[in-house]
Structures are given as structure tokens and as C-alpha cells.
Design goal:
mainly alpha; two-stranded antiparallel sheet; 2 strands; about 45% helix
Length: about 170
């Protein structure tokens, strides 16, 4: 079971294309700026998406990328399969001697759980995410992160009997 940062960015980028699907092509620079990631990193992701025919590149003025198919025909599992190297763990290889060992059982459980996870994701299309769902946005900005953390963990008043000693 794997949902890397690259997979998350791929899904968010595909959602960005799906929202503008009726409009014109979307430039990678706009998506990179929206997601707060480097353009070269996004280009690597889109090269993989293009190989799997999930997106199409449009050249020229007004060029950019559009979805390769309709938003209701692209599911999250295939987006992840396009950008992730090894999405499903390998089945455990065990000899007869250790076929009942705990590690083999745990590996088998992870393989089965990963298959269920990707089965679940294969039932979620880009269109279904857009229906009634608000698109996720970056939750922090440089300079705001510290204040957000400070609000999450407010300072407490010193406890009675506690004295602070200065280092000399």
C-alpha cells in the first residue's frame, strides 16, 4: 500500500485538469504554482501520465494539458499506477520450512490489504471527486506555518513552584 507525495500531486494535478476540462488546456506552470511544487517535478509526473494516455499535451499558443479521457472514465487507482514505481508489494516468497512464519503472514496480509486499497481507489473517478467535493488546497504558506503551529499548541502558564534558572 503506497500513496507517495508524487501520487498525491498527480491526483491533485489531474483534478485541476478535470475542473478546466470544458475550458482550454491547462499549463503546467499554473498547476505547479497552485500546488506549490517545482515545474520540473510536475513535468516528470506528467511524462508518466502521458505514457499511460491519461493526459494529452497541446502545443502552441494556449497550449498545455487536457485529460486523455473523460473525467468519469479515469479513476484514482490508474493515476497512481501510472506514477508510482511499485504500487503493490510483491507476494512473499517462502520455502516450506518457513511458510508459516509470522513475517510471511504479515507480508501476505500487506499484499491483500494493498489489493483492497487499490480496489477501493479504482471505484473513485475524477468526476465523482468533483461532484459535491471541494478541491483540496495547500493548507500552509511560508511564514504562516509557525503561527498555525503556535495556535495548535498554545503556551501554558508556568506551574506553581516552578522557577526558571538562568544559565551562567
Amino acid at each position: 500500500m503506497k500513496l507517495s507525495t508524487q501520487g498525491q500531486h498527480a491526483i491533485l494535478a489531474m483534478l485541476a485538469l478535470a475542473t478546466h476540462h470544458e475550458d482550454k488546456a491547462t499549463r503546467l506552470t499554473d498547476i505547479a504554482q497552485q500546488q506549490g511544487i517545482s515545474l520540473s517535478y510536475l513535468e516528470q509526473i506528467f511524462a508518466k501520465l502521458r505514457q499511460h494516455e491519461l493526459v494529452e499535451g497541446m502545443r502552441g499558443p494556449g497550449g498545455g494539458y487536457v485529460l486523455g479521457r473523460a473525467a468519469d472514465d479515469i479513476n484514482l487507482a490508474e493515476i497512481l499506477q501510472a506514477v508510482e514505481d511499485d504500487i503493490l508489494p510483491e507476494k512473499p516468497k517462502a520455502s516450506k520450512k518457513d511458510s508459516k512464519s509470522a513475517s510471511v503472514s504479515v507480508q501476505k496480509m500487506w499484499v491483500d490489504l494493498s489489493k483492497q486499497f487499490y480496489g477501493f481507489l479504482s471505484n473513485i473517478t475524477l468526476a465523482s471527486l468533483l461532484e459535491g467535493h471541494e478541491l483540496p488546497t495547500k493548507q500552509y504558506r511560508l511564514g504562516e506555518t509557525a503561527s498555525m503551529i503556535a495556535r495548535m499548541f498554545p503556551a501554558r502558564a508556568p506551574q506553581a513552584g516552578y522557577t526558571r534558572h538562568a544559565a551562567m
